[in-house]
Amino acid sequence: MPETTKYFESVMGEYESYLIRERGLAPATRVRYLESIGRFLKQRHDNLGVIDADQVSAFIMNEARRVCTITLRMTATVLRSFLRFLFRQGVIATDLASSVPAARSWTLAALPRYLPPDQVEQLLESCDRTTSIGRRDYAILLVLSRLGLRATEVVALTLDEVDWRAGEFLVRGKGYIHDRMPLPHDVGVALTEYLQHDRRSATRCLFVPIKGPQITFTDGASINAILRRALGRAGLKAPAKGIGTHLLRHSLATNMIRRGATLAEIGSVLRHRSANTTRIYAKVDIEGLRSIAPPWPLKVQS
């Protein structure tokens, strides 16, 4: 068993180097890739060379029983990448990437999970702003709920990217695209209180751990944990198991459209690169959908 563990660790190390060197994946993305492959390797024997299409299909079918469609599609993508890597390295004799079943889903089939405005405020009020951790968590949750940032974008914020005079800050988003966003007054006040009283770090990261050995947050999981703790304090139940900070991103967009914002305006706030990404929020405009729904045909009496 120790030899098997070393063998798998060696393969995983080579695969991670490949993801860095040739794929250029960000650290958080590499973590998700390696977690998926780790689950796959747990059900394999000590010789990866004997993997066949049936074993690949069985793994995906098992994953389908425990994860949502979006996660399953990501897992399938990761597994194809890993199998191509094994084939390229000569570990397996056949490229098994094509044997990974596709995770089927209807476009825009799901509704976005969100909190109504009163529950968002309840979430913010759950932070004890008489403490250092409470003030920091309040500032983080305010940035998430007012501006719709992703967890990884919050982690990446630095002191140098806040322009206090102009009332804006720089967001390093997906695909290495940078956007300037306005700094709302209440967000600015919360950040000022946190920076003046609670932030003690030599790093330039805007948000840092208050306690513990870490000097920075390493990935978005820490921000998701802050949200989950706040939901618990507020007595709110997450709309879906395992949901992260996209809950507040969806809440912002949903509440905007219910106040009359257009999809183009929502796409601009959320920094979507494609209008198709924003289309899902049209489904939560119930009154708008009622106005275009045809009347239900009355039954003709015979």
Features:
3 strands; DNA polymerase, domain 1; three-stranded antiparallel beta sheet; 302 residues; 53% helix; hpI Integrase, Chain A; 2 domains; mainly alpha
Brief digest:
The protein is mainly alpha-helical and 302 residues long. The protein has 13 helices and three strands; from the N terminus they run αααααααβββαααααα. A three-stranded antiparallel beta sheet has the order 1-2-3.
Descriptive overview:
The chain is mainly α and 302 residues long. It folds into two domains: 2-99, DNA polymerase, domain 1; 117-285, hpI Integrase, Chain A (Orthogonal Bundle), CATH 1.10.443. The chain is 53% helix and 4% strand. The chain has helices at residues 2-23, 27-42, 53-64, 69-88, 117-125, 132-147, 151-156, 185-197, 221-234, 246-258, 263-270, 275-278, 286-292; strands at residues 162-163, 168-172, 178-182. A hairpin with a 5-residue loop joins strand 2 and strand 3. Helix 1 (2-23) packs antiparallel against helix 2 and helix 6 (132-147) runs antiparallel to helix 8. The protein is globular.
